[in-house]
Amino acid sequence: MESKIATAVSQIPLSGIREMWQRAAEYESYISLGIGEPDFNTPEQISNQALQDALQGATHYTQSQGDPELLKAIQMYLHERLGEGFSTGQIVVTTGGVGGLTSFFRTVLNPGEEVLIPEPYFPPYRHHIEWVGGKAVPVQTRFENGFVPTPEALEAAITPQSKALLLNSPNNPTGAVIPGEILDNLARVVLERDLLVLSDEVYERLLFDGRTHESIRTRPGMKERTVVVHSFSKSFAMTGWRIGYAFGPEWLITPMIKVVSSTTSCAPSVSQRAGLAALQLDAEVIDGMVEEFRVRRDQTYEALKELPDVRVHKPGGTFYIFPDISQITQDSRQFALDLLKEEQVVVIPGEAFGPAGKGCLRIAFTVNQDILKEALQRIQRFIKKIS
Ligand SMILES: Cc1ncc(COP(=O)(O)O)c(C=O)c1O
Fold it and tell me: For 29, what's the count of Cα atoms within 13 Å in the CB-facing half-sphere?
C-alpha cells in the first residue's frame, strides 16, 4: 500500500531533528537543546485577551486576508518598525510563518523552476518547494564567512530556471545576521538576474548587542519583487497559536490571498485576536525575553569557545548557535547520537540543515540558565573525553 503515497511525500527523509527526538524518547530523562521554540509561555496579556475575544465570538471564519483589526495593527506595526507607509492590500495574515512560505511558493513556482537558498537552511523550505514541482538549489556558505551567503556564491548557483532567492536573516540554524553591505550586493545580483525574493524574517525581533533589523527589501528595486515573512511564533513566544503574516507588493500578495483562501480559508480567528494583543504589548516584555536569550547566548558561546577543537561564531540573533566540531569528527550525526547516549543531551547534527552543515551542530539555548549550565558542562566533558 505504501507505493500509493505520493513520491514528493514518501521521499522526504527522516529529518535529523525528528531522528534525535525519536532517539531521545528512549531515555527516561535528558536535556534537550534541540528545541526550536522559546521556552517561555505566551505572555499572559496575550492569552487573556484572546480568551476574552473567543468568549465574545471570535470563533468564526475571518476574511481570507485576515481580521481587519489585525491587518490594521500590522499596518501600523510595519509603519513604526520600517518608517514606511503600507496599504492593507500589501499584507496577508497566515497560519504561522510557514503559511507565508508555502503560499509564496504556490503563488510563484511552476514545475521545474528553481529557488536559490543559502545552505544550511530550515529543512521544510525544500519540501514546500518540491511539493509544487520546484527545485531547491543550495547557495554555498562557509564557516569562515560566518555562514553568510556571498554574491559570488549566489551567482554560481543561478541557472536559466532560477526564479527566486530565499534569504533567512537572522538565521536558523546558524544564528547569523546578514550584514548590510552583503544585502546591498545580493540585491544587485537579484536585480541583474531578475529574481524574486522571499525574505524569511521570522526572527527579526531576536537580535543582540544593539543590532537593528535589516532587510533586503529596503534595497533599491527590491520592494516590487520581495515578499517578507513574519511570524508571531518566535518573537512573542506564540508557536502553538500558528499565526504569522506576509507583506510585499500587491501584485504578489493578492494571488497569495487566493492561495490562503483555498488552503486554510483563513488563519485561526482566535489566534488572530492573540496576534492583535501581541502587537499591543509593551515592548519591554519582548525586550525582557530577548535579554534572557542574550545572556544564554553569551553563556553558551563562552563555554564552547573554551574547547580547543571547537570553532564557533557568536550569533547575532535567534536562539541558536552553530559550532563547528569538524576538527573532532566529520560525523556530527554520530557525535550527536553518542552525546545523547553518554550524557543525555540532545543537540541537532548540522547536516539536518543540508550537506553544508556537516561537521557542525545546532544548539538551541531554549532552556533556563541552570539547565543550560548543566548541559554545557556535559558537552564539555564529552568532548574532552573523545578528543
Ligand atoms: C527560519 C524559520 N522560518 C519559518 C519558521 C516557521 O515559523 P512558524 O512556527 O511561525 O510557522 C521557522 C520555525 O522554526 C523557522 O525557523
Answer: 2
- What is the tens place of the pLDDT at every residue in 190-212? 999 999 999 999 999 999 999 99
Q: Looking at the 3D structure of the chain, how many domains does it have?
A: 2
Instruction: Please tell me the distance between residue 290's alpha carbon and the centre of ligand 1 in angstroms.
Output: 17
The whole domain housing 158 covers 58-279
On the CB side of 145, how many CA atoms lie within 13 Å of its CA? 16
Answer whether 200 contacts ligand 1 (Cβ < 6 A): yes
10 Å CB burial of residue 279 (0-12, 13-18, 19+) is middle
Model confidence at 9, in pLDDT bands (50, 70, 90)?
confident
> Which of 250, 279, 308 lies at the terminal end of a domain, its last residue?
279
Single out the residue of 2, 40, 71, 83 nearest to residue 243, CA to CA: 71
Strand partners, 226: 197
C-alpha to C-alpha distance for 77 and 72, rounded to whole angstroms: 9
Cell of 94: 497566515
CATH number at residue 202: 3.40.640.10
pTM attached to this predicted model: 0.97
Instruction: Assign residue 298 a region (left: φ > 0; alpha: ψ between -120 and 50; beta: otherwise).
Output: alpha
Q: What residue's CA is closest to ligand 1, atom 7?
A: 97
